[in-house]
Amino acid sequence: MTATLFIEWTTLISLVLLAVALLVSLVRIVIGPSLSDRVLALDLLAVVAMGFVGAIAVRTGLWLYLDIAIALALLGFLATVALARYVLLRGARQSPAQEEGR
Questions:
Q1: pLDDT greater than 60 at residue 97
Q2: Alpha carbon distance 40, 80 (integer Å)
Q3: The whole model's pTM is what?
């Protein structure tokens, strides 16, 4: 088995597994019972997308894709921070009477 054949098979397997992980995270975003579950699934989606881009970079040999993965990491981090702040502000605005009604 040559090294290129090994890399092709391993990247193919990793791309399939990452595609399954993307689908699972999308399902979690859609059916997540709470907003915090959806935020966590969105963060997982960003991390899996970075892995997907990294696997494509290894498979094609174009290391320019790693710059795209870095940009996705920054975007995912900023989105998670913004949504976490939104969840905190939303929780602070709820009155104690509303929390008892849950």
A1: no
A2: 8
A3: 0.80
